[in-house]
């Protein structure tokens, strides 16, 4: 592009909330926009267009975005030509209500409609509001090469599927992201190889439920399941680390675990959301497994991958949850010994089965108290998990310079634990063997060994 064109180009600022899928989607959006002459900026003050990629999973995720829209309103007061767009899950859920509610919103685009962004922006240029929230059965953005918005140039996300068919009774995802579809494996391999050639060392394969990845060729003669896809990606190079998220306890197969065991570059970490330790609650949640089934999957992980870390999501205070049910969750956590966990209070979401049929009947104080107990227990389990690493040696992929000291580097081990160690002559992107000598509540501390 020559300089005059560069000056004419509009500058886009993207702010992302929610899960890793949203981070990956923002990279697709950046790519679509760049191909249409827009420039991505990291400085909100120089933006001509602000896009906020949103999450609807819990009420408080949406509250944060409403707060941001008030901030954008102030910016727009000083800069009336600014375009503000809401994209992602909240755009899909609220549609035109977003514009009715906040007049500063010019553009509303759902997760399957990002290709139409340039066209919609033309509508906005002409002084109208623009909306596209059509969900698709096919869209996987397979042919779009995402523009990496991360800074380290070492780890990247690749979205392998979109949407979800599980219909857990509390969950908004199927309503805002549509049905499940698997992306063509060839396009995934091409993207992973390209990242590897550019110097990336770690790829995380993303999907709402990676274990149900199931791609079928048009003539239906060829199918690829998740274990096969994992193997295809792992074979690109032994120096390319592979992670994936999220696994589903009802679908996670031994085959996937055996594939992980076969390739040392597939990281020893499984994120396996339990949600609850009570079969009664799991049934109401329509999770499709019992406590016993979940424990069986954990035992399979520990048998096939003895050094594998396990993390989870726990949700407390779901409809009808009793003190007994809550104790079952605490006992499951102690039994599994999670390395870390994301822990939430149940938040009723419109349209879901639970919102339509089950009462949000656990009092707020009880939810808070149970959540505190869960967080406290996990605190001690996380500490135990880190203490057990003292004296061990891990291969760490260096991701950056420690925030606390420029003489220290940080990276993660295969188990996804953050490790900090003295920099010496090591640099970002190196694999370094580090012996763990100490730990804090959040990190392992060690020294490099030759
Ligand atoms: N309320 C609270 N937490 C939820 N999650 C999903 N839906 C809800 C909800 N309605 C949590 C689950 C899920 C994680 C991504 O968010 O634990 O695994
Ligand atoms: Fe991700 Fe779910 Fe939030 Fe959408 S609603 S951004 S899929 S966590």
Fold blueprint:
Elements (H helix, E strand, L loop, with lengths): L2 H6 L2 E6 L3 H16 L3 E2 L8 E6 L4 H20 L4 E6 H6 L2 H5 L5 E3 L7 H9 L4 E3 L22 E5 L1 E2 L10 H5 L3 E2 L2 H13 L4 E5 L7 E3 L6 E3 H9 L6 E5 L8 H9 L6 E3 L7 H7 L5 H14 L4 E8 L6 H14 L3 E6 L7 H5 L6 H24 L5 E9 L6 E5 L5 E5 L8 E9 L4 E5 L2
Parallel strand pairs: 1-2, 1-3, 3-4, 4-5, 5-6, 7-10, 10-13, 14-15, 15-16, 19-21
Antiparallel strand pairs: 8-9, 11-12, 17-18, 17-20, 18-19, 20-21
Helix pairs in contact: 9-10, 10-12, 13-15
The site of iron/sulfur cluster (SF4) has 13 residues, from helix 2 and helix 7.
Entry summary:
The chain has 15 helices and 21 strands. The protein has helices spanning 3-8, 20-35, 59-78, 89-94, 97-101, 117-125, 173-177, 185-197, 226-234, 254-262, 279-285, 291-304, 323-336, 353-357, 364-387; strands at 11-16, 39-40, 49-54, 83-88, 107-109, 130-132, 155-159, 161-162, 181-182, 202-206, 214-216, 223-225, 241-245, 269-271, 309-316, 340-345, 393-401, 408-412, 418-422, 431-439, 444-448.
What does this structure look like?
This protein is α/β, with parallel strands linked by helices. It folds into three domains: 130 residues, Methylthiotransferase, N-terminal domain (Rossmann fold, 3-Layer(aba) Sandwich); 232 residues, tm_1862 like domain (pyruvate-formate lyase- activating enzyme), CATH 3.80.30.20; 56 residues, OB fold (Dihydrolipoamide Acetyltransferase, E2P) (Beta Barrel). Helix content is 36%, strand content 22%. The protein contains 15 helices and 21 strands. The chain has a six-stranded parallel β-sheet, sandwiched between helices. A five-stranded mixed beta barrel has the order 17-18-19-21-20. Helix 2 links the parallel strand 1 and strand 2. Helix 9 runs parallel beside helix 10, helix 10 packs parallel to helix 12 and helix 13 runs parallel beside helix 15. The relative contact order is 0.08. The mean pLDDT is 96. It binds 5'-deoxyadenosine and iron/sulfur cluster. The site of iron/sulfur cluster (SF4) has 13 residues, from helix 2 and helix 7.
């Amino acid at each position: 592009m020559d300089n005059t064109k560069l000056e004419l180009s509009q500058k886009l600022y993207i702010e992302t909330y929610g899960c890793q899928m949203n981070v990956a989607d923002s990279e697709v959006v950046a790519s679509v926009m760049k191909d249409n002459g827009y420039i991505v900026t990291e400085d909100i003050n120089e933006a001509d267009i602000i896009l906020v990629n949103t999450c609807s999973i819990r009420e408080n995720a949406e509250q944060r975005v409403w707060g941001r829209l008030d901030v954008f309103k102030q910016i727009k007061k000083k800069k009336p030509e600014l375009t503000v767009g809401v994209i992602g899950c909240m755009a899909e859920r609220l549609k035109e209500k977003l514009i009715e509610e906040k007049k500063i919103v010019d553009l509303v685009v759902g997760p399957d409609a990002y290709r139409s962004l340039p066209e919609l922006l033309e509508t906005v240029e002409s002084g109208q509001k623009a909306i596209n929230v059509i969900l698709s059965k096919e869209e996987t953005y397979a042919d779009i090469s995402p523009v990496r918005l991360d800074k380290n140039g070492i780890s990247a996300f690749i979205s392998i599927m979109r949407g979800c068919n599980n219909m857990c009774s509390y969950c908004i995802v199927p309503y805002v992201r549509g049905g499940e579809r698997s992306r063509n494996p060839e396009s995934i391999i091409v993207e992973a190889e390209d990242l590897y050639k550019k110097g990336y060392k770690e790829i995380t394969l993303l999907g709402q439920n990676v274990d149900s990845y199931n791609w079928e060729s048009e003539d239906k003669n060829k199918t690829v399941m998740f274990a096969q896809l994992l193997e295809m990606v792992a074979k690109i190079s032994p120096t390319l680390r592979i992670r994936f998220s999220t696994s589903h306890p009802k679908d996670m197969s031994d085959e996937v675990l055996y594939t992980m065991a076969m390739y040392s570059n597939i990281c020893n970490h499984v994120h396996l959301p339990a949600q609850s330790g009570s079969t009664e609650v799991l049934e109401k949640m329509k999770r499709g497994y019992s406590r016993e089934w979940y424990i069986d999957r954990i035992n399979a992980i520990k048998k096939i991958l003895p050094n594998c870390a396990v993390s989870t999501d726990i949700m407390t205070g779901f409809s009808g949850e009793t003190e007994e049910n809550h104790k079952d969750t605490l006992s499951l956590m102690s039994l599994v010994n999670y390395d870390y966990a994301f822990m939430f209070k149940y938040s009723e979401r419109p349209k879901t089965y639970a919102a339509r049929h089950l009462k949000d009947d656990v009092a707020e104080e009880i939810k808070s108290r149970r959540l505190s107990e869960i967080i406290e227990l996990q605190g001690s389990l996380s500490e135990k998990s880190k203490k057990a690493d003292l004296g061990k040696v891990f291969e760490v992929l260096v991701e950056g310079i420690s925030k606390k000291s420029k003489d220290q580097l940080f990276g993660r081990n295969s188990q996804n634990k953050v490790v900090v160690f003295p920099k010496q002559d090591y640099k970002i992107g190196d694999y370094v063997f580090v012996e763990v000598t100490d730990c804090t509540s959040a990190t392992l501390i060690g020294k490099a060994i030759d």
